[in-house]
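Module 6 notes. Inverse folding takes a fixed backbone as the condition and produces residue identities as the prediction. Think of it as a translation problem where the source language is geometry and the target language is the twenty amino acids. Below is one complete input and output pair. Work through it position by position during the lab.
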């Protein structure tokens, strides 16, 4: 169940940033997006032990990056831009805000998808480096 702890720790900064750009029904969309991504993470970590380990290792590294949340801000901006592209967010330059349920959902799933993919990539890279080290 460590993956669940990793998931929720990684949601802290994106959720806080999301609250700043989401209003009204957009918050409902954010919560639905968080629930969907949590379910997806649970399902994917149940597929294989290697996947679970990569998700957890990479997730801890991404969680630590929240101290300087450049990755989280960029992922959130891309998620909001995706919502705006679907006309589910208001683009009031320089800010975009996702006010509807669908806008909050799209922005959250986009942001979470980017962060989860990044965590998996880091975790897989760490696993690959470990396997090279173990071969020696």
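Target side of the pair, the amino acids:
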């Amino acid at each position: 169940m460590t993956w669940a702890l990793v998931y929720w720790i990684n949601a802290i900064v994106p959720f806080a940033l999301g609250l700043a750009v989401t209003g009204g029904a957009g918050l409902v969309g954010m919560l639905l997006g968080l629930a969907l991504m949590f379910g997806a993470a649970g399902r994917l970590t149940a597929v294989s032990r290697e996947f679970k380990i990569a998700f957890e290792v990479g997730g801890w590294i991404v969680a630590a990056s929240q101290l300087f949340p450049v990755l989280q801000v960029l992922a959130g901006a891309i998620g909001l831009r995706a919502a705006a592209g679907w006309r589910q967010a208001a683009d009031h330059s320089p800010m975009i805000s996702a006010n509807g349920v669908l806008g909050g959902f799209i922005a959250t799933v986009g942001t979470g998808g980017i962060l989860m993919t990044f965590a998996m990539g880091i975790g897989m890279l760490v696993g690959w480096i470990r396997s090279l080290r173990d071969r020696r």
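Reference fact for the lab report: The two ends are 32 Å apart (CA to CA).
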